[in-house]
Amino acid sequence: MNNGSGATVTRTSGPTSTERASALGIDRVYDYTTTDPADQAELQGTFDVVHDTSGSLPVRTAVRPLNKTGLSPTRSGAAAPAPGR
Question: Based on the domain organization, do 22 and 53 belong to the same domain?
């Protein structure tokens, strides 16, 4: 993944993919089998975009880490706004 735009990229991966994700240039990688990033206090309110590529993340969970102007695109193409918007 090229994050030459200056973005900080955070991703969840399974235990067999975390090293590969880091090697691709992802800044923070969480093993979803041991850590739920949505429960990490330091991540709350920090993201501009939360994109769930599997479509399994509940909207309530996806919007928790968004900042006040953040969006979470859904598989249908709609975007769930951050809480309080």
Answer: no
